[in-house]
Design a protein that fits this description.
The protein is α+β, with helices and mostly antiparallel strands and about 425 residues long. The chain has 14 helices and 19 strands.
Protein backbone atom coordinates (compact mmCIF):
# COMPACT_ATOMS: atom_id res chain seq x y z
CA UNK A 1 0.00 0.00 0.00
CA UNK A 2 1.37 3.39 -1.01
CA UNK A 3 -0.37 6.73 -0.61
CA UNK A 4 1.26 9.83 -2.08
CA UNK A 5 0.90 13.30 -0.57
CA UNK A 6 1.04 16.44 -2.72
CA UNK A 7 0.84 20.12 -1.87
CA UNK A 8 -0.64 23.02 -3.79
CA UNK A 9 2.41 25.28 -4.17
CA UNK A 10 1.94 28.51 -6.11
CA UNK A 11 -0.85 26.90 -8.14
CA UNK A 12 1.10 23.76 -9.07
CA UNK A 13 1.27 20.32 -7.48
CA UNK A 14 4.48 19.24 -5.76
CA UNK A 15 5.15 15.80 -4.29
CA UNK A 16 5.63 16.12 -0.52
CA UNK A 17 6.05 12.48 0.44
CA UNK A 18 4.29 9.17 0.75
CA UNK A 19 2.99 6.52 3.12
CA UNK A 20 4.68 3.19 2.42
CA UNK A 21 5.47 -0.09 4.23
CA UNK A 22 8.62 -0.09 6.37
CA UNK A 23 9.65 -1.94 9.51
CA UNK A 24 6.48 -4.08 9.41
CA UNK A 25 4.26 -0.99 9.50
CA UNK A 26 3.21 1.88 7.28
CA UNK A 27 5.50 4.88 7.71
CA UNK A 28 5.45 8.39 6.29
CA UNK A 29 8.46 9.46 4.24
CA UNK A 30 9.14 12.97 3.00
CA UNK A 31 10.30 12.94 -0.63
CA UNK A 32 14.10 13.38 -0.72
CA UNK A 33 13.95 16.16 -3.30
CA UNK A 34 11.23 17.91 -1.33
CA UNK A 35 13.38 17.91 1.83
CA UNK A 36 16.41 19.17 -0.04
CA UNK A 37 14.49 21.99 -1.72
CA UNK A 38 12.69 22.87 1.49
CA UNK A 39 15.91 23.13 3.47
CA UNK A 40 17.51 25.27 0.76
CA UNK A 41 14.52 27.65 0.71
CA UNK A 42 14.00 27.75 4.46
CA UNK A 43 10.53 26.16 4.35
CA UNK A 44 8.59 24.40 7.07
CA UNK A 45 7.38 20.81 6.87
CA UNK A 46 3.68 19.94 6.81
CA UNK A 47 3.53 20.28 10.61
CA UNK A 48 5.52 21.58 13.53
CA UNK A 49 5.28 18.00 14.80
CA UNK A 50 6.72 16.62 11.51
CA UNK A 51 9.80 18.71 10.62
CA UNK A 52 11.62 18.07 7.35
CA UNK A 53 13.65 14.89 7.73
CA UNK A 54 15.00 12.13 5.50
CA UNK A 55 14.08 9.35 7.92
CA UNK A 56 10.64 7.73 8.17
CA UNK A 57 7.98 8.86 10.62
CA UNK A 58 6.24 6.04 12.48
CA UNK A 59 2.43 5.92 12.93
CA UNK A 60 2.56 7.26 16.49
CA UNK A 61 4.44 10.29 15.16
CA UNK A 62 2.42 11.11 12.06
CA UNK A 63 -1.05 9.98 13.13
CA UNK A 64 -2.03 13.14 15.08
CA UNK A 65 -1.45 15.43 12.12
CA UNK A 66 -3.00 13.35 9.36
CA UNK A 67 -5.86 11.95 11.46
CA UNK A 68 -6.65 15.56 12.34
CA UNK A 69 -7.61 16.26 8.71
CA UNK A 70 -10.58 13.88 8.76
CA UNK A 71 -14.20 14.50 9.75
CA UNK A 72 -15.30 13.40 13.20
CA UNK A 73 -18.51 12.17 14.80
CA UNK A 74 -21.52 11.07 12.79
CA UNK A 75 -20.11 11.90 9.37
CA UNK A 76 -16.99 9.79 10.00
CA UNK A 77 -19.11 6.94 11.36
CA UNK A 78 -21.35 7.06 8.29
CA UNK A 79 -18.33 7.06 5.97
CA UNK A 80 -16.75 4.13 7.84
CA UNK A 81 -19.94 2.15 7.33
CA UNK A 82 -20.10 3.23 3.69
CA UNK A 83 -16.52 2.11 2.97
CA UNK A 84 -16.55 -0.84 5.40
CA UNK A 85 -13.34 0.26 7.12
CA UNK A 86 -12.51 0.91 10.80
CA UNK A 87 -12.99 4.50 11.95
CA UNK A 88 -9.32 4.71 13.00
CA UNK A 89 -7.98 3.59 9.59
CA UNK A 90 -7.49 7.14 8.37
CA UNK A 91 -5.24 6.13 5.47
CA UNK A 92 -8.12 4.15 4.00
CA UNK A 93 -10.25 7.29 4.17
CA UNK A 94 -7.64 9.34 2.34
CA UNK A 95 -7.78 6.86 -0.53
CA UNK A 96 -11.42 7.94 -0.94
CA UNK A 97 -11.40 11.56 0.28
CA UNK A 98 -8.02 12.93 -0.69
CA UNK A 99 -8.81 15.71 -3.16
CA UNK A 100 -9.86 18.68 -0.99
CA UNK A 101 -8.93 18.97 2.66
CA UNK A 102 -8.22 21.63 5.25
CA UNK A 103 -4.93 23.24 4.26
CA UNK A 104 -2.95 22.60 1.08
CA UNK A 105 -2.54 18.81 0.89
CA UNK A 106 -4.01 16.29 -1.55
CA UNK A 107 -3.71 12.50 -1.37
CA UNK A 108 -3.40 10.02 -4.24
CA UNK A 109 -3.68 6.28 -3.67
CA UNK A 110 -1.55 3.61 -5.30
CA UNK A 111 -2.79 2.81 -8.78
CA UNK A 112 -4.12 6.32 -9.36
CA UNK A 113 -2.54 9.49 -10.70
CA UNK A 114 -3.06 13.10 -9.73
CA UNK A 115 -4.04 13.78 -13.35
CA UNK A 116 -6.99 11.41 -12.89
CA UNK A 117 -8.69 14.05 -10.74
CA UNK A 118 -9.06 16.88 -13.21
CA UNK A 119 -10.34 20.09 -11.59
CA UNK A 120 -13.78 21.31 -12.61
CA UNK A 121 -16.94 22.72 -11.08
CA UNK A 122 -20.52 21.48 -11.25
CA UNK A 123 -23.80 23.31 -10.78
CA UNK A 124 -25.60 22.90 -7.48
CA UNK A 125 -28.63 20.81 -8.38
CA UNK A 126 -32.06 21.09 -6.76
CA UNK A 127 -31.88 17.44 -5.69
CA UNK A 128 -28.79 18.25 -3.62
CA UNK A 129 -30.61 21.08 -1.88
CA UNK A 130 -33.59 18.83 -1.17
CA UNK A 131 -31.31 16.24 0.41
CA UNK A 132 -29.68 18.87 2.62
CA UNK A 133 -33.05 20.18 3.76
CA UNK A 134 -34.38 16.72 4.51
CA UNK A 135 -31.41 15.06 6.23
CA UNK A 136 -28.30 17.22 6.58
CA UNK A 137 -26.01 14.54 8.03
CA UNK A 138 -26.84 12.02 5.32
CA UNK A 139 -26.51 14.65 2.58
CA UNK A 140 -23.14 15.79 3.93
CA UNK A 141 -21.90 12.20 4.06
CA UNK A 142 -22.92 11.63 0.45
CA UNK A 143 -21.38 14.90 -0.76
CA UNK A 144 -18.17 14.24 1.18
CA UNK A 145 -17.86 10.96 -0.71
CA UNK A 146 -18.89 12.35 -4.10
CA UNK A 147 -16.60 15.39 -3.93
CA UNK A 148 -13.71 13.55 -2.20
CA UNK A 149 -13.68 16.04 0.68
CA UNK A 150 -11.82 15.73 3.97
CA UNK A 151 -13.05 18.47 6.29
CA UNK A 152 -12.03 18.11 9.92
CA UNK A 153 -14.39 18.61 12.84
CA UNK A 154 -17.59 17.12 14.22
CA UNK A 155 -20.05 19.45 12.48
CA UNK A 156 -21.80 18.51 9.25
CA UNK A 157 -20.04 20.53 6.59
CA UNK A 158 -19.28 20.53 2.87
CA UNK A 159 -17.09 22.65 0.60
CA UNK A 160 -18.56 24.81 -2.17
CA UNK A 161 -17.16 27.47 -4.46
CA UNK A 162 -18.41 30.93 -5.31
CA UNK A 163 -17.08 33.15 -8.13
CA UNK A 164 -14.79 35.85 -6.74
CA UNK A 165 -17.05 38.68 -7.90
CA UNK A 166 -20.04 37.41 -5.88
CA UNK A 167 -20.34 38.07 -2.15
CA UNK A 168 -21.81 35.13 -0.25
CA UNK A 169 -24.26 37.49 1.46
CA UNK A 170 -25.78 38.27 -1.93
CA UNK A 171 -25.43 34.85 -3.53
CA UNK A 172 -28.33 32.80 -4.82
CA UNK A 173 -28.17 29.03 -4.81
CA UNK A 174 -27.63 29.03 -8.57
CA UNK A 175 -24.37 30.96 -8.02
CA UNK A 176 -22.72 28.20 -6.01
CA UNK A 177 -20.55 25.49 -7.59
CA UNK A 178 -19.41 22.07 -6.39
CA UNK A 179 -15.64 21.48 -6.67
CA UNK A 180 -14.79 18.28 -8.52
CA UNK A 181 -11.44 16.53 -8.73
CA UNK A 182 -8.69 18.76 -7.39
CA UNK A 183 -10.63 22.01 -7.86
CA UNK A 184 -10.36 24.16 -4.70
CA UNK A 185 -13.40 25.38 -2.78
CA UNK A 186 -13.89 28.93 -1.56
CA UNK A 187 -16.32 28.38 1.33
CA UNK A 188 -17.14 25.82 4.02
CA UNK A 189 -20.90 25.36 4.27
CA UNK A 190 -22.05 24.16 7.68
CA UNK A 191 -25.51 22.63 7.96
CA UNK A 192 -27.34 22.07 11.25
CA UNK A 193 -29.50 18.99 11.44
CA UNK A 194 -33.26 19.32 11.16
CA UNK A 195 -34.78 20.81 14.30
CA UNK A 196 -31.51 22.44 15.39
CA UNK A 197 -31.41 25.24 12.82
CA UNK A 198 -30.84 27.83 15.54
CA UNK A 199 -27.27 26.54 15.89
CA UNK A 200 -26.49 28.26 12.58
CA UNK A 201 -27.95 31.55 13.81
CA UNK A 202 -25.95 31.14 17.01
CA UNK A 203 -22.63 30.77 15.21
CA UNK A 204 -23.46 33.52 12.71
CA UNK A 205 -24.30 35.98 15.49
CA UNK A 206 -21.23 35.02 17.57
CA UNK A 207 -18.92 35.57 14.61
CA UNK A 208 -20.40 38.99 13.92
CA UNK A 209 -20.20 39.91 17.61
CA UNK A 210 -16.52 38.91 17.58
CA UNK A 211 -15.89 41.12 14.58
CA UNK A 212 -17.58 44.06 16.29
CA UNK A 213 -15.42 43.42 19.35
CA UNK A 214 -12.29 43.89 17.24
CA UNK A 215 -11.34 40.32 16.32
CA UNK A 216 -10.31 39.13 12.86
CA UNK A 217 -12.80 36.50 11.69
CA UNK A 218 -13.63 34.85 8.36
CA UNK A 219 -16.61 36.29 6.49
CA UNK A 220 -19.79 34.39 7.35
CA UNK A 221 -23.10 34.47 5.50
CA UNK A 222 -26.44 32.74 5.93
CA UNK A 223 -27.70 30.47 3.14
CA UNK A 224 -31.37 31.45 3.40
CA UNK A 225 -32.67 28.77 1.03
CA UNK A 226 -31.32 26.03 3.34
CA UNK A 227 -32.59 26.41 6.91
CA UNK A 228 -29.73 26.09 9.39
CA UNK A 229 -26.94 26.63 6.85
CA UNK A 230 -24.11 29.16 6.92
CA UNK A 231 -21.25 29.73 4.47
CA UNK A 232 -17.84 30.51 5.97
CA UNK A 233 -15.27 31.98 3.59
CA UNK A 234 -12.09 29.91 3.66
CA UNK A 235 -9.08 31.83 4.94
CA UNK A 236 -6.84 28.99 3.68
CA UNK A 237 -7.76 29.83 0.06
CA UNK A 238 -6.51 32.94 -1.74
CA UNK A 239 -7.65 34.38 -5.03
CA UNK A 240 -5.30 34.68 -7.98
CA UNK A 241 -5.84 36.04 -11.48
CA UNK A 242 -8.89 35.14 -13.57
CA UNK A 243 -10.92 33.83 -10.65
CA UNK A 244 -8.48 31.11 -9.64
CA UNK A 245 -7.82 29.92 -6.08
CA UNK A 246 -4.64 28.69 -4.42
CA UNK A 247 -4.59 26.64 -1.25
CA UNK A 248 -2.68 27.85 1.81
CA UNK A 249 -1.51 25.29 4.33
CA UNK A 250 -2.60 25.31 7.96
CA UNK A 251 -2.47 23.13 11.06
CA UNK A 252 -4.41 23.34 14.28
CA UNK A 253 -2.79 23.32 17.70
CA UNK A 254 -3.47 19.61 18.27
CA UNK A 255 -1.65 18.79 15.05
CA UNK A 256 1.20 21.18 15.79
CA UNK A 257 1.73 19.62 19.23
CA UNK A 258 1.39 16.07 17.88
CA UNK A 259 -1.60 15.36 20.13
CA UNK A 260 -4.31 12.80 19.27
CA UNK A 261 -7.87 14.04 18.88
CA UNK A 262 -9.05 12.93 22.32
CA UNK A 263 -6.53 15.32 23.91
CA UNK A 264 -8.11 18.40 22.35
CA UNK A 265 -9.98 18.66 25.66
CA UNK A 266 -8.28 18.64 29.07
CA UNK A 267 -10.41 15.77 30.43
CA UNK A 268 -7.69 13.15 29.94
CA UNK A 269 -5.03 15.29 31.68
CA UNK A 270 -6.76 17.74 34.04
CA UNK A 271 -3.46 18.34 35.83
CA UNK A 272 -1.93 19.87 32.68
CA UNK A 273 -2.30 23.61 32.11
CA UNK A 274 -3.49 23.80 28.52
CA UNK A 275 -3.02 27.57 28.63
CA UNK A 276 0.68 26.98 29.23
CA UNK A 277 0.69 24.39 26.44
CA UNK A 278 -0.68 27.07 24.10
CA UNK A 279 1.86 29.63 25.31
CA UNK A 280 4.76 27.21 24.81
CA UNK A 281 3.55 26.28 21.34
CA UNK A 282 3.31 29.93 20.32
CA UNK A 283 6.81 30.45 21.67
CA UNK A 284 8.09 27.61 19.48
CA UNK A 285 6.24 28.54 16.27
CA UNK A 286 5.46 32.25 16.22
CA UNK A 287 7.73 34.89 14.74
CA UNK A 288 6.19 37.38 17.19
CA UNK A 289 5.41 35.35 20.33
CA UNK A 290 4.71 38.35 22.59
CA UNK A 291 2.06 39.71 20.26
CA UNK A 292 0.54 36.29 19.52
CA UNK A 293 0.36 35.26 23.19
CA UNK A 294 -1.53 38.48 23.91
CA UNK A 295 -3.88 37.84 20.98
CA UNK A 296 -4.61 34.33 22.22
CA UNK A 297 -5.21 35.63 25.73
CA UNK A 298 -7.71 38.11 24.25
CA UNK A 299 -9.41 35.22 22.45
CA UNK A 300 -9.63 33.22 25.66
CA UNK A 301 -11.36 36.18 27.31
CA UNK A 302 -13.81 36.37 24.41
CA UNK A 303 -14.52 32.62 24.42
CA UNK A 304 -15.34 32.94 28.10
CA UNK A 305 -17.45 36.07 27.58
CA UNK A 306 -19.75 34.59 24.91
CA UNK A 307 -19.82 31.21 26.63
CA UNK A 308 -17.96 29.29 23.94
CA UNK A 309 -16.98 26.46 26.25
CA UNK A 310 -16.09 24.26 23.25
CA UNK A 311 -12.85 26.20 22.64
CA UNK A 312 -10.67 23.08 22.32
CA UNK A 313 -7.17 22.92 20.81
CA UNK A 314 -8.43 22.19 17.30
CA UNK A 315 -10.18 25.57 17.31
CA UNK A 316 -6.83 27.37 17.22
CA UNK A 317 -4.55 27.15 14.19
CA UNK A 318 -1.45 28.42 12.43
CA UNK A 319 -1.75 29.57 8.83
CA UNK A 320 1.25 29.12 6.53
CA UNK A 321 2.35 31.77 4.05
CA UNK A 322 2.22 30.95 0.32
CA UNK A 323 5.98 30.27 0.31
CA UNK A 324 5.76 28.03 3.42
CA UNK A 325 8.42 30.13 5.21
CA UNK A 326 6.21 31.92 7.72
CA UNK A 327 3.38 30.95 10.07
CA UNK A 328 0.83 33.25 11.67
CA UNK A 329 -2.23 32.79 13.83
CA UNK A 330 -5.30 31.88 11.81
CA UNK A 331 -8.40 34.06 12.29
CA UNK A 332 -10.84 33.38 15.10
CA UNK A 333 -13.32 30.67 14.06
CA UNK A 334 -15.95 28.17 15.27
CA UNK A 335 -17.71 30.38 17.82
CA UNK A 336 -20.91 29.36 19.62
CA UNK A 337 -22.70 30.44 22.77
CA UNK A 338 -22.81 26.94 24.26
CA UNK A 339 -25.20 27.67 27.18
CA UNK A 340 -27.94 28.26 24.60
CA UNK A 341 -27.39 24.85 22.98
CA UNK A 342 -27.90 22.54 25.94
CA UNK A 343 -24.37 21.15 25.72
CA UNK A 344 -21.72 21.22 28.45
CA UNK A 345 -20.78 24.61 29.87
CA UNK A 346 -17.45 23.28 31.09
CA UNK A 347 -14.62 24.96 29.20
CA UNK A 348 -12.39 22.72 27.06
CA UNK A 349 -9.60 23.52 29.51
CA UNK A 350 -9.26 25.50 32.71
CA UNK A 351 -8.79 29.23 32.95
CA UNK A 352 -6.93 29.57 36.20
CA UNK A 353 -8.40 26.97 38.56
CA UNK A 354 -11.83 26.51 36.99
CA UNK A 355 -13.46 25.16 33.82
CA UNK A 356 -17.16 25.64 34.54
CA UNK A 357 -18.28 28.97 33.06
CA UNK A 358 -20.22 29.99 36.16
CA UNK A 359 -17.23 29.32 38.45
CA UNK A 360 -14.57 31.37 36.66
CA UNK A 361 -13.52 34.45 38.64
CA UNK A 362 -11.47 37.60 37.99
CA UNK A 363 -8.66 35.82 39.84
CA UNK A 364 -8.84 32.93 37.35
CA UNK A 365 -8.48 35.39 34.48
CA UNK A 366 -5.45 36.93 36.20
CA UNK A 367 -3.96 33.44 36.58
CA UNK A 368 -4.67 32.78 32.90
CA UNK A 369 -2.65 35.91 32.00
CA UNK A 370 0.23 34.62 34.09
CA UNK A 371 0.06 31.15 32.51
CA UNK A 372 -0.04 32.71 29.03
CA UNK A 373 2.96 34.89 29.86
CA UNK A 374 1.31 38.21 29.06
CA UNK A 375 1.28 41.50 30.93
CA UNK A 376 -1.59 41.62 33.43
CA UNK A 377 -1.87 45.37 32.98
CA UNK A 378 -2.07 45.08 29.21
CA UNK A 379 -4.60 42.23 29.30
CA UNK A 380 -6.81 44.15 31.72
CA UNK A 381 -6.81 47.04 29.29
CA UNK A 382 -7.79 44.69 26.47
CA UNK A 383 -10.51 43.14 28.64
CA UNK A 384 -11.96 46.60 29.24
CA UNK A 385 -12.08 47.29 25.51
CA UNK A 386 -13.74 43.96 24.74
CA UNK A 387 -16.34 44.45 27.48
CA UNK A 388 -17.11 48.00 26.31
CA UNK A 389 -17.50 47.00 22.67
CA UNK A 390 -19.58 43.99 23.65
CA UNK A 391 -21.88 46.17 25.72
CA UNK A 392 -22.41 48.57 22.80
CA UNK A 393 -23.65 45.89 20.38
CA UNK A 394 -27.28 46.35 19.33
CA UNK A 395 -29.18 43.23 18.15
CA UNK A 396 -31.11 45.48 15.74
CA UNK A 397 -27.95 45.66 13.62
CA UNK A 398 -28.68 42.13 12.43
CA UNK A 399 -31.06 42.07 9.47
CA UNK A 400 -32.75 38.70 9.92
CA UNK A 401 -35.28 38.48 12.77
CA UNK A 402 -34.09 35.01 13.83
CA UNK A 403 -30.53 36.32 14.12
CA UNK A 404 -31.69 39.41 16.02
CA UNK A 405 -33.44 37.16 18.52
CA UNK A 406 -30.38 34.94 18.83
CA UNK A 407 -28.01 37.91 19.25
CA UNK A 408 -30.22 39.29 22.02
CA UNK A 409 -30.16 35.92 23.80
CA UNK A 410 -26.37 35.70 23.49
CA UNK A 411 -25.87 39.20 24.89
CA UNK A 412 -28.25 38.55 27.78
CA UNK A 413 -26.68 35.19 28.58
CA UNK A 414 -23.24 36.81 28.70
CA UNK A 415 -24.15 39.54 31.21
CA UNK A 416 -22.87 37.68 34.32
CA UNK A 417 -19.60 36.92 32.53
CA UNK A 418 -19.28 40.48 31.27
CA UNK A 419 -19.52 41.58 34.90
CA UNK A 420 -16.62 39.25 35.75
CA UNK A 421 -14.64 40.63 32.82
CA UNK A 422 -15.27 44.21 33.95
CA UNK A 423 -14.23 43.31 37.47
CA UNK A 424 -11.03 41.77 36.13
CA UNK A 425 -10.40 44.90 34.05
CA UNK A 426 -10.94 47.25 37.00
CA UNK A 427 -7.87 49.26 38.08
CA UNK A 428 -8.73 48.25 41.66
CA UNK A 429 -8.72 44.53 40.89
CA UNK A 430 -6.45 42.46 43.08
Amino acid sequence: MRLEVYRDFHGAWELVGAFAPARDEVCFFYDVGYVQRGEERGEWGVSESLPLDFGPYEPREYAPFFHGLLPEGTVLANLAERYQVPRNDFLAFFEKLGCESIGALTFVAEGAKLADFKPSYALLESSTIDRMREDAERAVTEMTDELRLSLSGAQSKVAWCLPAEIDARDAALCDWRLPLGTAPSSHIVKVARKGREELAYNEFACMEIARQCGFVTPDVALVPEIPGAIAVKRYDRVSIGEGGLVRLHQEDFCQARGLPLYLKYADAHPEVSYVRVIAELVGAVSENPVQDRLELARRLLFHYLIGNSDNHLKNYAFLYSADWRHRTLAPLYDLTCIPLTGYSTKMAFALGSHRELSEITPGDLARMAQDMGVSLTVLRREARRIAERFGAIAPALFEMSEVQTMARRILENAEPRRAVLESFASPNAA
